[in-house]
Amino acid sequence: MATEAPPISVDSQFTFEFFGRDALALSDTQNSLQKLVPSIGLLQKVQHRLIQLDDLSWRDFEVLIAEMLEADGYSVELMRGTKDDGVDVVAVKDFGVMGLMKSIWQAKKNHIDRKVGLSTVRELADTRLELKASKAFIVTTSFLTHGALQRVERDKFLLGKVDRDDLDKWIDRTLRSDI
Question: Between the N and C ends of the chain, which has fewer C-beta atoms within 10 Å?
Answer without folding.
Answer: N
